[in-house]
Amino acid sequence: MLNKHDVDYGIYLVTDRKILGRRGLVQSIIEAAQGGATVVQLREKELLTGEFYSVAKRVKEVTDELGIPLIINDRLDIALAVDAAGLHIGQEDMPAKIARKLLGPHKILGVSASSVEEAVLAQQEGADYVGAGAVFATGTKEDISFIGLEGLRKIKQSVAVPVVAIGGINEENLKAVFENGADGAACVSGILGASDIKKAVEKLKNIKRSVK
Amino acid sequence: MLNKHDVDYGIYLVTDRKILGRRGLVQSIIEAAQGGATVVQLREKELLTGEFYSVAKRVKEVTDELGIPLIINDRLDIALAVDAAGLHIGQEDMPAKIARKLLGPHKILGVSASSVEEAVLAQQEGADYVGAGAVFATGTKEDISFIGLEGLRKIKQSVAVPVVAIGGINEENLKAVFENGADGAACVSGILGASDIKKAVEKLKNIKRSVK
Lengths: 212, 212
What we know:
The structure is a homodimer of 212-residue chains.
Chain A: E1 11-14, H1 24-35, E2 39-42, H2 49-66, E3 70-73, H3 76-81, E4 86-89, H4 96-103, E5 108-113, H5 116-124, E6 129-133, H6 148-158, E7 163-166, H7 174-179, E8 184-187, H8 189-192, H9 197-211
Parallel strand pairs in A: 1-2, 1-8, 2-3, 3-4, 4-5, 5-6, 6-7, 7-8
Helix pairs in contact in A: 1-2, 1-9
């Protein structure tokens, strides 16, 4: 059984169906894990509940085999239905306090924060980690403002829980992300958009190692 | 506390934001309840989770005051988050077996069925009632085939749980719906599209009384 306090948020893959190549979702996750990805967050914004459930169930089998935690974006029903390791919610999703209550104490709850206020509140309401961002410009989410490395550093200083940086992170800026306090780096296109996913993650891991 | 076995499915309102008039969602529900609606199903297909949660929370306060059960369409997370009386799922939503497990024994689980096979399976997997339909043509859902009164009757004969007929039900055909075995009639535009919602529901109630 996963102990949520042992989770390594180091290289945290967030999926995005829109930038999957021909290799598909499951194969991309496998290759990312082979390269050393430590967490997978399944993010599906377009699927019907039944489809999302089927995809999540399949991905859960794979992440279980790979031995890495699966976190579901937004949908607590799916997280519970597939017995995922946890749930990640944004500020537009369910209130963190309610999510914490419904998840129980053992599942991971991650909450997105783009300010110190949101990060502190997320921690108060039971977040196990804070997703801080967007740190840099990104093509994968719309209508977000960027907090920069300074924003990341301030959020890290304001909370005791791990901070996972997200937003436009790639091999060029990863070093700076960890130097500014991130406990983990969440990547979408930085991993899924690579021609060789395994190699891309290995590269990110090596950069991370060079910092800590 | 609601005992789910006491629920009267008689006149069952399903909401649809697209056909709400100027009176809005909450006012429509209040007027329907004043007319005698016995159940409210909140159906929201476009809202983000946080918005859906807020709307459902507000509606739950209202249905609690009115003393009628609130059932959430599709989203088990929202049903749990607002402590709704139950959840209604379609064939495209989460599997009924999983929903039953996650809801626990005390919450209502309704499952849509458009055939005897689906109805029997729904009952086996823990449905407390079956939503049988679409009985007639309707403008509120796309890509569905119609089961007619004969389909309704066959479903009623195949299961022990209450059967709520849905799909194009209005004051013209309501009598036939109950004569063909329905325990309840779910209406969308038949209620929400009325110029006087309270009166429309009263009319439906009177028709129902004339049958049973």
